[in-house]
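Schema walk-through. Below, the input block comes first and the output block second. Nothing else is stored per chain. Lengths vary across the set, and this one has 219 residues.
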Amino acid sequence: MMNGQQYRESLKELKPKIYYLGQQIEDVVDHPATAPHVNAAAKIYDMANDPVYGELCTATSHLTGQKINRFTHIHQSTDDLISKVKMLRAIGQQTASCFQRCVGFDALNAIYQVTYELDQAKGTSYHQRFLDYLKMVQEKDLIRKGSPSDQPRATFESRQFLLGTQLQAHVVEAPEGEGDLGIAIVLIVIRDHGEAVETFDSRLDHELLAQAPEHALIE
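--- output ---
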């Protein structure tokens, strides 16, 4: 498992290309717009290695038998679900901000179940491919992230809510031969009260456009 310092170093090695308010961020670890996000995620890594929180923030992989970060774990029992809630409460008390890993955590568990049921019904091999991916996530202690997406069938009220300043990701089917998962995020739009002000198309570019962090993560 990684600790907070190793996480920060991994970001420096990764050198993601991120823009904030039209300017490229050279160092996401230290830039004031992204440092709060990095600090919160680093705190989670440190808590998993802390004797006080370690038991709560770690689990035993049902795939490898190794000790892993609970955020990469697939729930196996009611106790796992209770431990998850207690862990989130403890992290909230320590960070007072977004945990950075919740959506990805839930997504791993959802995809685990859906791929298994799909294989049982259709005779496909998605589940084994996902298990191979999951082992890699657990071994490297990776953060998996979710993304807000547009909702074609959203109600009028929810669409009105979505018209504020935000980032939307449109997920479509990938062209033949592109993407092992069969889908690709091809368009990200930053909107300001319904007007598209910046776009990112993964078919043309691989830069990431980042919107301003929430005030709660800065203050």
